Every structure is written in structure tokens, then in C-alpha cells.
Amino acid sequence: MAMPRRVWFGATLGALAAGAPAAVLASGLRAGATFEIYQDNRKEYRWRLKAANGQVIATSGQGYKSKADCRHGIEIIQREAATAKVEEVPEKE
User: Fold this and answer.
1) Is the distance from CB of 18 to CB of 25 less than 8 angstroms?
2) Do residues 34 and 49 touch, judged by C-beta distance below 8 A?
3) What is the pLDDT of residues 49-84, one digit of tens each?
4) Region 38-52 average pLDDT
5) Residue numbers of the domain that contains 33
6) 17, 23, 22: which is closest to 3 by C-alpha?
7) Cα separation of 11 and 7, whole Å?
8) Which residues have C-beta within 8 Å of that of residue 80, sequence separation ≥ 6?
């Protein structure tokens, strides 16, 4: 059963969409996760967060016109994720 995608500050948490357990996400984040900034085909800047094992666990979900805006998006995620609450969405019958 795949969990619904969660969009947060323009970020798509891909690992959650793939049903990865929270423990896997947390262990990957603590063990050397890396934000990568890159340009897409439209020459917009995007970021992706990779766990220590190289798996992409989150993406920006949108393109930014400037690298500075992209970096700001990363800073927001870094700051807000530490205190974000977890909510479960009830299944539809």
C-alpha cells in the first residue's frame, strides 16, 4: 500500500510516497544525508535530498529561477523539519 505524497514547502517527500518506514528516513538523515542543487532542462534550479545510501528521499518539487532561492528553500526545510509534527491521514473507505 503506497502512502500519499506529502508536499511541504514545495518539497515532495518521495520516500514517504514509496512507503519507506520513518525509521529508515531518520537513520538516513542522521548518517550523512546530502542536499544536491542542480539545474533542470528548463534551466531552473532544484534540490534533492539523498540519504547516506544514495537514495533520493526528498525533492524540491518545483524549480527556482535563482540558485539563491533554491538555497533558501533548503534552509527552510532544514529549519522546519526539526520540529515538524507527523500526522496520519485516515484511509478512505
Assistant:
1) no
2) yes
3) 999 999 999 999 999 999 999 999 999 999 999 999
4) 97
5) 7-81
6) 17
7) 5
8) 8, 9
What is the CATH classification number for the domain harbouring 62?
Answer: 3.30.160.160
Task: Look up residue 64 and give its DSSP letter.
Answer: B
pLDDT for position 27: 45
Q: How many domains does the chain have?
A: 1
pTM score of the predicted model: 0.63
Residue 92 lies inside a defined structural domain of this protein: no
Domain annotation covers residue 89: no
Q: Is residue 91 part of a domain?
A: no
User: b/e per residue, 21-43, with b = 16+ CB within 10 A?
Assistant: eeeebeebeeeebebeeeeeeee
Check residue 10 and report its DSSP letter.
T
Q: Which residues pair with 36 in a beta bridge?
A: 48
| Residue 52: all three cell numbers together | 547516506
1 within domain boundaries: no
